[in-house]
Design brief:
Keywords: Methyltransferase, S-adenosyl-L-methionine, Transferase. Pfam families: Methyltransf_11. InterPro entries: Methyltransf_11, SAM-dependent_MTases_sf. GO terms for molecular function: methyltransferase activity. This is Class I SAM-dependent methyltransferase. The structure is a single chain. The chain is of the alpha/beta class and about 200 residues long. The chain has a single domain (about 1-190), classed as Vaccinia Virus protein VP39 (Rossmann fold), CATH 3.40.50. The chain has helices at about 1-10, 15-20, 25-35, 55-60, 70-85, 120-130, 150-160; strands at about 45, 65-70, 90-95, 105-110, 130-145, 165-170, 185-190. Strands 3-2-1-4-5-7-6 form a seven-stranded mixed beta sheet, sandwiched between helices. Helix 1 runs parallel beside helix 5, helix 4 (about 55-60) packs parallel to helix 5 and helix 6 (about 120-130) packs across helix 7. The protein starts with a helix and ends in a 14-residue tail after the last strand.
Length: about 200
Amino acid sequence: MQEDWNAEAARFDEQPDHGLHDGLVREAWTLVLQEALPAPPARVLDVGCGTGSVSVLLAELGHRVQGIDIAPRMLEQAAAKAKRRGVEVAFLEGDASRPAVKGPFDVVLCRHVLWALPDVSAVLDRWTTLLVPGGLLVLIEGRWHTGAGWRSDDLLPLVRAATSTAVLRPLVDPDLWGGPIEDERYLIIATAGKEPPFRTGTGDR
């Protein structure tokens, strides 16, 4: 798996939602993340951070961010990106499914990674142990036209089994993806412990 993702590193940011180079795409993701996360500074773990686009964006918003990824070439790009943007992010090479990090965190965030991990129920359980009581598990996932990914109806019950509450929000704004989409893409915000979710909004279920 490490070799596969290393090989993807050079062209990974060519996708608009990966590189966040386009101003409209970056603004759209900024709004989504601001609505999903607590007010900064929160301590955020970005699991499977890839080239660090989301990690860097969160750091620019004032959060204290640590990113972990299995691919060192991805992390090289992530570190360079943070330096260019003038923010500090602690990037660590490691297995996103078993993060060897020191918590607790206010937020564990994962974008487009769960589909590539085995035993998702166990992964979700491990991630929630890294959260403070009432901390947030923020998952950005989808079932893409390629056939990869998770349908929300399949993933949401697993998330609810690992957390106290979970809400689902579709991510249909074409600005998020650099154009219109025809597949399913969504955000799940789940809460560890007994506290209610940080926010809910239109489209929650």
